[in-house]
Each structure stands twice: as structure tokens, then as C-alpha cells.
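Reply to dn_fold:

You asked what the input looked like. This is it:
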Amino acid sequence: MTATTELAIPVLSLPARLARLYAGLAAYGVGMGLQIESTLGNDPWNTFHQGLSVRTGWSVGTWLVIVGALVMLVWIPLRQKPGLGTISNVVLLGVFTDATIWLVPAPDHLAVRWAYLLVAVVLAAAATGLYISAGLGPGPRDGVMTGLHRLGLSIRMARTLIEATVLSAGFPLEKPVRLITALGS
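and this is what came back:
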């Protein structure tokens, strides 16, 4: 095997791709709900979503949908094209996140809260692999990153810029700022 050998990615049927997409979106939404329920802190986007939720009384899932749709407006000057996965991401992440928050009890014990957070991180990683490997379009936030990359920014710089901007907007909204939010930023 040489350094230029590429991994063979199997071609999947549309039903298999749809199964990956929706399993990934469900898992990601469950992970976000668990992360929020842990009350140990959020990633930058959920810091923003939860801050808006606290300030308005609207659910985190509602804000996921609204912000996802608004982020897609940034796609216009970046000339990004949404796919079925993009639209599904906008609609379903909020539904799965809210369902998890409503159905899964908020733990009191610190060990259970840490377990929620660790499961959330693992779910996010697995879910991202599933929905991206479906090849049906990036999520709205990822589309901004790839659009900025096409304009010449490195993926790292584009992602850092986006996350820092969102965290800057969400940080003042999330009171109190939680440990993982501060450490993970």
C-alpha cells in the first residue's frame, strides 16, 4: 500500500443512504439533548441555542430550526447548494433534541450527568459520520464552513471563525457559563 492509496467507499443504495442520514440526525439530536440535560456545558452552537431558549421561553429545538434556516441564508453569497440532508438537518435536529429533553429525565447525580455528557460526545461523533457519509448534503452550519473553504480559507480557520463568532454571541446569553462551555471553547 502506498501513501496515495485511497480508501474504497462502497456505493450505497438510496434507501441505505436515507437510513444513514436519518439515523445520524436522530443520534445527533439525542446527543445534543443529553449534552443539554447534563447541565455541564454546551458546544458553541448549543450555547447560542440554549441562551436564546432561556431568553425567549422557546425550546432549544425551536431555536435549532430557526437558526439552521437563517444560517442557510449565508449560503446564498457562498453559492452553496442544499441537499435533502441539509433540509432534513434543519427540521429534524430540533425535533430530536426537544424530544430527548422532554423524554429523558434530567439527572441530579454528578456521575450520571457526566455519563450523559460522555454519551453525547460519542453520539455526536458517530452521528456526524453517519449523516455525512450519506452524501445527501451538509448541515447548514457545515455548509458555511465548506463555502468559506471554497473562498480560500482553510477548513480549520473557517470552522474556528464560525465557532468563535457563535460562541461570542451565545456566551452572554448562557447564564451561568458552564464548565464544559468554558473549557471546550
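Confidence is low (pLDDT under 50) at residues 1-7.
Hope that clears it up.
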